[in-house]
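CHAIN AND CONFORMATION:
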Amino acid sequence: MCENCWLDHSRYGARSVRFAWPLFIAAALLVLIFLNVSTALAGTPGFAQPSPFGLGDTMSGAVAAGDMDGDGDLDLITADTGSNGHLLYLNNARAGFAVKRIVGMAPGDASCVAVGDLDGDGDLDVVFGSKDEAAQVYVNDGKGNFTPGASLGDDGNNYTSVAIGDLDGDGDFDLVFGGMAGEVVVYVNDGSAQFSADASWDEPGNVITRVVLGYFDDNDTLDIVTGVSTGSNAIYLNEDSLSFSDAHFFGPEDPTTKGLAVADFDDNERLDLVVGNFDAPSVLYMNFDGVDFTLTHTFAITSVVSVATGDLDGDGVVDVAFGREAQFNLAYFNDGEENFAVSRTFGQRSNMTTDITMADLNGDGALDLVVVTGGEQDMVYLNNGAGGSTVGRNVGPGNDPTESIAVADFDGDGLLDLLVGNVGAPTQVYLNDKSNPAKGLALHYATPVASTRAVIVADFDGDGDLDFAAGNAGQPNVIYFNDSAGHFPTTRTFGTLTGQTTALAVGDLDGDGDLDLVEGNQKELNRVYLNSGAGIFSLAYTFGNAEEYTFALALGDLDNDGDLDLVEGNYNGQNLLYDNDGAGHFDDTTAQIFGPDSDWTNSVALGDLDADGNLDIVVGNEGQQNMIYFNLGAGGGDQRPFGPGADWTYDIVVQDLDGDSDLDIVVANRYEQNAVYLNDGLGLFNWSTPASTFGTGEDQTTCVAVGDLDNDGIPDFAAGNAGEQNVIYVNNLRWPQSLINTPPTMGIQHPGRTPVATGYASSEILANIIPITYTLYDWEADPVARVQAYFSLNGGGSWLPAVAAAGTVTTNLSASRWPTGTQHVYLWDAPNSKFYGRSDNVIFRIVAYADVRPRPYSVPGPYQLPYTSAETPPFRVRGNQIRVLQGAQPMAGAQVFHFLAGDLRADPFTNSAGQPYVTDAQGYLQGRGALQLGDRLVAIAPISATQDYTLYYASAAPTLTGLDAHVVTTLGMQTLQVSATHPLLLFNLDVSLEWDARNDGTFLTDLQAAIRRSSEVLYDVSDGQIAIGEVRVHHAKAQWLSADVVMYAQNGIRPRASMGGVTAELRDDVGVSGVITNAYGPGQIRMGPNWDPFGQDLAELSANWQRAFAHELAHYLLYLPDNYIGVSATGLPISTDCQGSFMTSTYDDAYSEFLTRTGWVGQCLDTVAAKLLDRTDWETVRKFYGMLLEPATTNTGPSLLPLNVTQMRQQTPATSAVSFAPAFFDLRKPTGELFAVSRAQGYLFKTGGTSDLTDDSVIALGATVGGGDRIKVRGAAAGDRLCVFGPYNETTQSAAMGCLPSLQAGQQSVPMTMADNWQPVIIVNAVTSETWAITATLKAAVSSLNVQLYPAYGAVTDTQTVLAPWKAMTVKPGNPLLYTAQMTLDDPSFEGLVRVWVPGQEGQREALTQFFLSPPWGPNNAGTGFNADMRAWGANARQLGAPVASGDGQVTIFNTDNFFAEAGTTSLQALTELPSFPLWLTPVGKGYRFVSSVDTPRALMFNYHQRDVPEGYEHTIHIYFQPEGSSAWQRLSTALDTSHNQATTQMLGNGEGIYALASTLDVPLTGAGWNLFGYLNLPRRIVTEALVSITGYYSQVATYDPAAAAQWRIYDVAVTTEHPQYAGLVNDLTYLESPFGYWLYATENITLFLKVPAPGELTPYATLTPGLPPATFYGPVRATATFTPAAGMLVTATVNGVVCGRGVVVEWAGGPAYRIMVASDTGDNCGVSGRGVQFAVGGYVYPQMAEWQNFRAWYLPLEASTLQYVLEIARTGNGNGIVTPTVGLHTYNEGTVVALAATAAPDSTFDGWSGDADCADGSVTMTASKACTATFTLKTYVITPTWGTGGSITPGTPQTVTHGDDITFTVAADEGYYIIDVYVDGKPLDPEQTFIFQTSVFTYTFQNVSANHTIHAEFAAMPPAQYFIYLPAVLRASAPAQSLNQLRGR
């Protein structure tokens, strides 16, 4: 007998709270339907879920089911009658048959198939019979792989049917075949699947169609039944082993039988026969005496081809199904009295069914139907599980006003008793009678009359028996304590005297081991009572709403953290979920609402319905829709309604009702039918229609309990009705011998000493090895092959494998008949089952698999159920435990990280939502999980925290490769000791993305990985003490103002950080000069999506980005300056190499640590940190974070951050994501071709879906990529505007641009056009903090111009919309190219974009520029409503002092007088166009306009991208400057640091103007005259463009190419102006190109600047060209009196009689013309300067003679004699200038008037013309050869020294200085005096008169003098006994203390 076998549910509150846990169920009887006795039948199964399997056109002749691959589910195998072969369909446990294997080729016309263990190895083999071929055995390897075995008979067998069974009693399976000729053949097995024909006979005239085996007489041997189509059906009794009787015929002649099945239909333990006939009705023959069969039932159907039997509706009696040919298949349901009044069809009428079988294919406990056909789709019809009957048994007097009910074993006899709570009547205990279970329930105990509305059962006093509590209305609640015999002599009240308690829940809320109470009240606050441990309760606190009607409470661990949370169901109010804080407290302020606020909730229950490991909530409502709320474990969920929608549901129970391991739902309805909803294992139900019902449908049911009240292992229902008879619905199911071989079943006992009850009733906590007692039943006493065990930590639904302790037997287990059974014990090793933590809701499940091996006189199968299972009620278990201590002190709030074997990184123990479990007040880790030997553990315990970081102590010391973690060597308690010697500082960050990246999952995933890697880098360089903790990512500029990190979409952003920007307020520091006031202020880090220090790798979030981000974090979080920046003696920033420091080089692994004093040597002593602060890296870190430890030595690790402490959290905006996924957009020409536009910039205008421009914003996307023909767009949404603007091309006078005015999904390209004469120069100036002045200078006039401002930062609230105002600009009178506008914003903003456009020509005449303003107004005076949060000033401008950086981080400006003093910046603006930029310069990046607020010496530093540098020409980079108001550019002295991509210069004067970094190739020429230079590795360019830098300073360029037809080619300047009609004839040199050398005739001693190739231009290798250019002559060829020239005639030039040049006459400029080149003298007496040249055409010698000169081309008409003269032009003096005509000889016809012109250079003056008399007036008439000379003189300036008393200046007189020269003055104090100050041009060099000048000698140098100056010195007498030390300016002790936070890294 199964003592204490348990099958009940969890129940918390009397009327409404039911908690799900499975009960033990016989899997053979899995579908349980409960009916009131007055109801005959609740329903029949439906087969509305057809599931096809197979190929669709297979010729299946027969089918069999069995577990062919040993995986625990039933597979299908079909016999093929065609050519496909026999097929095996492997089941996926849910009736999915995707896998099929060919078992063997079809042996002809296969007619039958059977499965059984033919070789005795424990797996199922298969045998096929055929009408044409020999029968064939296939042997299984246990995994569903088959090999051919024995062949039986021959090709003429004509076998039609086969049966398997042990006919000779030797313990192996034999085979019986029936044939078409009436033969019956028995093949005897020798035990190894080899067979011999031992017995055979035939019945002439019989055509056998079916053969089956069974026990029909009174012996134990198997008999044979044959079904025939012609002849007579017969039984052959096996009188002894293989000794068969004569045929016992039954039924009519020629019955056309094609189907035959055996089963016990009347439960008399004798097998009956169902005969399915084709042409006659099918019949049922009952076996009453073992030999003679009585026809008892006729089925009025024909066309039957197959019959199957089994319990389809789960009512415990056998039903029958008929497969029919070309007719509907039919299932008939037995009512237990052998009546088959109800039938159900399945399949199609037209199906050519050949065979059917029954099997539970989807594991839901209900038998499904399999139909195979000849040539059609084979089908599985899944059973929906409806049907069944029960017997109703009344309990109580019949009119009890019952509102609550529970079942529990109150007297400890192993049977469930009944507790009934009544309103206005006593609450009653009914004890169950062991001799008559469920029938003899007798009243045993009654309380005084009370209005009890809720009862709950638990062991409140921990004495091992079950007590109960009654929740009452209008009187105190009462606890009744059990005396272990079911009497309750002791009571204790709780609650108020007039309380209105409607719900109770019990559980260990505070984790102290005893059971506490929760009281739900009507119109009162709810209450929590904590147990002292002896059943004494004290009110802990109240919660909830005093106006609510709390009718339902349920406890469960919904967040999987190891404590019990609470669900509160309210009637006509909001349902709530309370999270337990671990100490038993439920906080109203953090309670989560769910469901509508007007549900009339009567009941809530918890259970893991979808098997995801999280408890879901089931809500029962009165007159409203019942709901399931699915818990997804991450703070979210889904919800589904169930039921018809208007049930009056009063109670709900969640429990596994059908034994399939998932949780089902029982619903108690008042005035309506009670219902059962069955789960499919995934939380899916037939939502609207219940699987079954119970009760009359008019019952006043208010409560329900489920449990095995009759101790038969099958769940029964107890229904409590208000004012009516309470009823127990006892399931009448037994385990009769209904089939020839009944499958096993089982029962299970509750572990521990506490008797069985519902919910968290036991205070006992089990641990370590837990014995679970279970009982196996089998009617035939067949053994069970094996058992497998599982456990659930949340009441069932989701399961984990259990590990058996040593000594547990799990295979070959004996079983015996019910009710005795055979008892076994499963020793559960909870620690080795990887169970860590504690659960109060553990369910243990054992699954048993039948043994398929043969036993004497047995048959295999039928294999209808895959397994049987049983589950315990819930109990409490403690598995492995982890405790965190510091010394002896428990550490609360600690996280524990868990390394599995081989793991390099570990996550903390977390709940299903990913939230870490933490330790409680005793240091024990909450939650639960897995733990096993070899695992490693690390704890981190919080010590202190700010809003920016949390300090932890770790339990493991860092190592070179990670952490020295605790290793689990024994299971049980694991104690982890944390220590202050292992600090870990975790910083939390807010990251704001400029765009909405929610639809860019790849980027977000990569961002998380990148930030984790940056965290790992910080961990490495800090010796394992610093990392990043939580990273909150905001989208679409949310928290843009307050975020720690702002990430732009632009691909060219240089990483920048405010040093110490993490501080929330202004903060001082102390340096070598004393206190530095307000050294640090709130700041940010700026990052783009990609970063490469060389600007070449555009990969997003690459390794370089990760290390750069870590570097910026060190600035921002740790207050560390860059160690690659130092300070020179003159105050200029210089490069330093502080070796080994991470703050020196981010990208070199040799620089991977923070340095201590030991490593602070060499150039580290020259860094800013050393000069200004005198601190090492670690000294700075520890100054601000003293809890960290400076390492004793510089380590090289840990190289790995083994703890996954860096977690990224998405901060989801309130609005849904509408942005497209990121995409590359091509640039396309109007023809559709790709259009490459290098350095073009993309902009995304976010329109917000409106036409209002003022709510727009702009995302700068950066430069084009992929060769310039595409742009990456991120954050775009439908309706946004996308534009690409290319740079202006001075050659074509145009710029490429294009826009998509309204983006739509699917667009992939931007149409581009060329905008002529369009690239405005936009200048932004700040008037106030809120008012800007904008000017736009155009290249061509337009009709009108608009301007719009897009502030990057707006109001400091982060939530206020930043408006982008726009207006029409005003054209300046008299200047149509200059437009102005002044705009005022609502809030100060110091950074943003300015857009200008021509109205109506958007995308064609449009431009943007970026600006950055340094506010001079102070943090609290910036405008109304603006506070001191300096983040609003922009990411890199936190304080007024300190270096100022441009918004993109490319330019930084320093005060060179004091490195961190005020830089005096009003505006620093990035320009899209460089005005008047010299064509010979190649820009490197953008230009920047600087506007000064004060005069102070400054230095400017460019940080450039390597990708912007012309390859191979980095050494040619300089900084160029265009002073404000000037159009001229000048090169500045530039310090270039190519290792850090930096260029630095001293700014001139007040520094105002435009600065650009540019590259050009300097080619110093040897002097005036011919110069030979190589044009090497430069792109092909037009001559005038290539030489634009010396325009006016050369006369001719020539090159020699021996391979060309015209070996010499020239470009002559003069011909283009003097005789332009001949320019095309003379100038055949159009381009300079590589590889060629060129001769250039320079008119002065100058330097040629060649424009270097822009990145990406072709730069081939070049060679120089040898040779000396010829002299070139050209002009018309005119006829004479004797000669007429013609085209094609030869032209020769002779020198000294030697032909030195040849040409031909061509038609040009309206007549014959020539060009001839006369070679220079190469030893052949040709051209030398001054030699005469004679010309001949076609042999005719012209009279003209010319001097050979090759510095220009000479115009010489060949004609009849004309007098000509030569004009010689020369230049003299030390000045510079240009003259016209150019210097040299010029030939003119007599009488020609030549105009002379001279223009002095800016540094010179023109003194006039000299020479011939008529030169002076600038006009010469050629009446003879003449000479004129222009004189130029350099300008001079006067510098005047003066001084006061006490010293002097040397030189002491005014000095005249030539333009561009330098002069030095020495200031010397007399004895006893010192210098107070020195004034240059009236301005003091040291206005604060600090001791920089308190010395006796000082020198000052005027450099590159270009104006008059004064210098004045003042002296003072030396005070007595004082000494002064001269130090460089940057180290002055009394220098103004300024902000350090402006020193930023790259």
